[in-house]
Sequence to fold (470 residues):
Amino acid sequence: MAVRTRQEVSARFVQELRQRVAPERVYTDWAVLQSYGYDGTAGYRALPQVVVLPERTEEVVAVARLCYEEGVPITPRGAGTNLSGGTIPVEAGVVIGFSRMQRIHHIDLANQTAQAEPGVITDRFHQAVEAQGLFYPPDPSSQSVSTLGGNVAENAGGLRGLKYGVTRDYVLGMEAVLADGTVLSVGGETLKNVAGYSVTQLLTGSEGTLALFTRLVLRLVPKPADRRSFLAFYNDLSAAAQTVPTLIAGGVLPATLEIMDQITLQCVEEYAHLGLPTDSAALLLIEVDGQPAQVQAEAAQVEAVLQKQPHITEWHAARDEQERDRAWAARRAALAALSRRRPTTVIEDATVPRRQLPEMFKQIHRVAQQYQLPIGTFGHAGDGNLHPTILCDLRDADEVRRVEAAVDALFHAALALGGTLSGEHGIGLAKNRFLHLQLGEAGVQLQRRIKEVFDPKGLLNPGKALGVIP
Ligand SMILES: Cc1cc2nc3c(=O)[nH]c(=O)nc-3n(C[C@H](O)[C@H](O)[C@H](O)COP(=O)(O)OP(=O)(O)OC[C@H]3O[C@@H](n4cnc5c(N)ncnc54)[C@H](O)[C@@H]3O)c2cc1C
Fold:
């Protein structure tokens, strides 16, 4: 990928940065720049000119001000696990890494809120709030590495999205630094807040293009007291997909309702050796949670539905916590397991209304056949959010052409079914050229006008999420 460096940053600029932030946290050495030149997305790479790791809001302000004065682009970065090229510094400049801003300021039991810095690892935050009997539902499969800031910037979903919603549903407010260094405080600790436009909600999911988050105010809920998991194996993928709307139409709202197709199941088994029946066409993983009486009632409803489903070859409730944990660990490892098959893994995020799941699976199958590409599909079926994952080799020019055509076809199929380009991974760089298909020219123009208000010089995460008007 070509880097459109706006201008070389000068030695004086770097010197100035070292005075404003601690010199040992401003990097220009080649090895460090290399590490910040890629993220979780296959096929994208571009090096920044400087990497800065601030520890406090004042340091973020100082970097933003200097970059604003000098017209230097900034790419914010959490753990770099995003799957849309969101942290590739396509215009070089400065990467601000938030990995040193890791403080959990406080967890408020009575208010059921917490305040934390953006670099806190999601899993560490889960553990901290759960130790107090509280619960923070957003749980992307990358939670052991991803950061809260990255989750908020991508409006990340996760396995518990069906019942509990996505990250946006838990962001009450934040402190954020604008492109010119202004510190903005939006939202707050109240559950209700209708003073002014909902800037908190706008910044959530803004993919680093509008502001740099330095403190997050997050809503918590009571930790569920009980839970029960089920595994259901099918000899027909479409039948597994059809169980999803059937279950929900029947009045059960599982915390989690995940699907894996046969390729994914086989890769997971090769990777984790769990004894999964790899001749199955699909696996549904279902979990209900809540108070014990509620869990018991919902589990009975799930059992009643599963008993009646055609094409189920085997189903059972997880026999104990160990089996439950193994099943969920396997699901979280799906992408890693698939990525062992071929040199490159291109994961997509097309999402459709859940009643369209069987049709979307048909479309994925059609695309795989048409372009002769192995596609393993897994995802948050309860949300209609599938991850068709193309297993390929981007060193092969012919395969690159087929992958691009396949991706194009998958997006068109999802949109034709009333779906969206992205359920949770964001637009970033990878889906930028498709955005107008969903938003239309007027929608893309509106987003650009909003961007100009926040970032008139276009310095924050340039090249991402704002679409291309053909
Ligand atoms: C194995 C695997 C599984 C995954 N599973 C899921 C899943 O289940 N659900 C899901 O939604 N995603 C998933 N993802 C994608 C990814 O983990 C999420 O998008 C996550 O939210 C990214 O967090 P991060 O800290 O790595 O952010 P990064 O990748 O570093 O950054 C993501 C975006 O946030 C911006 N950003 C980061 N920090 C800040 C800040 N402080 N202020 C402003 N902008 C900022 C960046 O500029 C970028 O646009 C998965 C990824 C992998 C590799």
Notes: Residues 39-40, 75-83, 86-87, 98, 118, 140-142, 146-147, 149-151, 153-154, 156-158, 207-208, 212-213, 335-336, 424-425, 461 surround flavin-adenine dinucleotide (CB under 6 Å). The radius of gyration is 22 Å.
